[in-house]
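Hello,

I think I submitted the zinc ion job twice by accident. Can you confirm which output corresponds to this input? Input:
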Amino acid sequence: MEDCIFCKIVKGDIPSIKVYENERVLAFEDISPISTGHTLIIPKTHAENLFEMTEEDLKAVILASKKVAGAIRTALSPEGIAVLQLNGRGVNQVVMHYHMHLVPRTAGDSDLPITGWEIKPGDMDAIKITGEKIAAAI
Ligand SMILES: [Zn+2]
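Support: Only one job matched these inputs. Its output is below.
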C-alpha cells in the first residue's frame, strides 16, 4: 500500500534497523520501544491485521518470532519476552499493517504495562456464555 509506513520500510524507502528477514517477513527494531530490544515482525505483503493475513504469511511470522525471540534471549538475556499483536484501533493498533511485537523485559526494569493486569476470578456463567458464542461462530 502506498501510504503504509511498513510497506515503505519493506521497500527500503524508509530506513529501519533490520535484525532478520526472509522471503516473506521482515523483523526490525521498534523506534518507540517499550523496552530495550522491542522488535517488530511484519509480513512483506501488506495485510492490515490478523483477519487479512494469509496462512503462509502467518506461519512465516510465527516461525520468525521463534527465531528472533531466541536471538533476543541470547543477545540480551531478558527475564522474559512478551509476544503481542494488536488488531484494530480499539486496541491501539497504530500502524495498520499487521505486526507482531516481541517485547523483552530485563531484570530490574519496571513491569511491562501489557503484562501487568490483575488476575482475579471472573463470572463463570458469563464466561461460559461467551465461550459458547465464540465456539458457535467457528
Ligand atoms: Zn503495509
